[in-house]
UniProtKB/TrEMBL annotation:
Organism: Agromyces rhizosphaerae
InterPro entries: Hexapep, LbH_SAT, Ser_AcTrfase_N_sf, Ser_O-AcTrfase, Serine_acetyltransferase, Trimer_LpxA-like_sf
One Pfam family from the record: Hexapep
Pathway: Amino-acid biosynthesis; L-cysteine biosynthesis; L-cysteine from L-serine: step 1/2
EC assignment: 2.3.1.30
Molecular function terms, GO-annotated: serine O-acetyltransferase activity
Transmembrane segment boundaries: none
Lineage: Bacteria, Bacillati, Actinomycetota, Actinomycetes, Micrococcales
Family statement drawn from the similarity comment of this UniProt entry: Belongs to the transferase hexapeptide repeat family.
GO cellular component, one term: cytoplasm
Catalysed reactions, as listed in the record: L-serine + acetyl-CoA = O-acetyl-L-serine + CoA
Keywords: Acyltransferase, Amino-acid biosynthesis, Cysteine biosynthesis, Cytoplasm, Repeat, Transferase
Protein name: Serine acetyltransferase
Broad EC category: transferase
Amino acid sequence: MDGPVKLVSRVREDIATARAHDPASRSALEIFVAYSGVHAVWGHRVAHALWRRGFRLVARVLSQLNRFLTGIEIHPGATIGRRFFIDHGMGVVIGETAVLGDDVMLYHGVTLGGKARRGAGRGTKRHPTLEDGVTVGAGAKILGDITIGTGSTVGANAVVTHDAPPHSLVVGVPAQFRPLADATADAARGVHD
């Protein structure tokens, strides 16, 4: 009985997360039937469970079906925490060894991509880690085995190839970071780079 109860609890949590992040949502029913980001996460959970149990081909086929239906590609090997939300998710790509903590939010067009290292074999971590509470703006590309620290924000269209410490604002091409508190204070004062 624990399985179905846990499943219903997670679905409710996902819907509540979508409502909290999207002020345009009108109802839980609307989210349940019409939010592709939520559907992609649900499909990933099934594919990831199959992947972990060794049903790799079935998991990959399911992930490609999920991609076809939602426009969001999440490799079944990716590890994703709770309360993950993808807003307007078309074009999101999450690679095989990506790790996402709890309360992560991605906008459309985000790529969590790999960088192959010469001589690295199968199973080598080559995709980013996003710690808890990270938000990634539309079109951002985070590439390679790097870590974006807890509570950080990655700006739209940033190209990130280096680690960012917790509570950073990460912007630009190539991306630079600074403490999020400093960036927030500058914005309040009307100071721009």
